Amino acid sequence: MTELSPLSAVLLLLWGTIVALDLVSVPQAMLSRPLVAGTVAGWLAGDMEAGLRVGVLLELFALDVLPIGAVRYPDYGPATVAAAALAAGAPWEFGLGLSAALALVLSVIGGWSLQVVRRFNARAIQHRAAALAAGETAAIRRLQYGGLLRDAARGVALTAIGLALAWLLANHLRLDRPTAVGLTLVTVGSGLAAGMSGAVRSAGRGARLRWLAVGVATGILLAVLR
Question: Which end of the chain has fewer CB atoms surrounding its CB within 10 Å, N or C?
């Protein structure tokens, strides 16, 4: 992990908040996808390539996540920001596995935090039930702004916790080379398995599955020829 300046830390905290809001609140512009969140976070941390690697790996885990309704799912946005900060400046074969492991743990915590925010939002709606039934627009606005503020606070807390854990791991955890490389191999293999599983489930049967097979074969062929 590279030494972060105060400005970089603040910008990472702000970016983590934005991607947390993007997941379900606003603007839902795919900023919370690990590929986007990680690349930008890596750039802010001074190592865009590390952020891109982390983003690609975590994108494989996130392929099967569909954030709709009250379904429980991990929140990979702030987790990816923290992971990219941890991976910045480190050789990828050493830092990628540890960064991905940190992100997977944080993403589960992020999913739990979504449930907490939903419960607070539900209580706020119940508290203003009479005003809503009367059609008071001010009550609707207060509920909307309150929900956004709660989700933003969730994003700030998740990103701050993630960056703090990244700093602790970078400064106090010393993995030997075989362990670090082994952890990277495990996370990469797990990511490939999760991505393939999600892709097959999403493709279903018929033409989409056949096109998926063609795409996989083409990718393997291009990788071998390169």
Answer: C
DSSP secondary structure, 38-63, as one string: HHHHHHHHT-HHHHHHHHHHHHHHHT
Give 6: exposed, middle or buried? Use CB within 10 Å, 0-12, 13-18, 19+: exposed
Give the pTM: 0.88
Written as six digits, the tokens of 24 are 């379900």
The tokens 């996989």 sit on which residue? 216
Going by C-beta distance under 8 Å and a sequence separation of 6 or more, which residues neighbour residue 209? 200, 203
Question: Which spans in 128-176 are helix H?
Answer: 129-133, 137-172
Q: How far from chain centre, in Å, is Cα 218? A: 28
**Helices and strands: H and E segment counts in the chain:** 9, 0
| Cα→Cα distances 46→28, 42, 156, 189, Å | 26, 6, 21, 27
Tokens (6 digits) for 194:
């999760």
Q: For the segment 65-102, what is each residue's pLDDT rounded down to a tens digit? A: 766 666 778 999 999 999 999 999 989 888 999 999 99
* Domain ranges, ordered by start, for the chain: 6-225
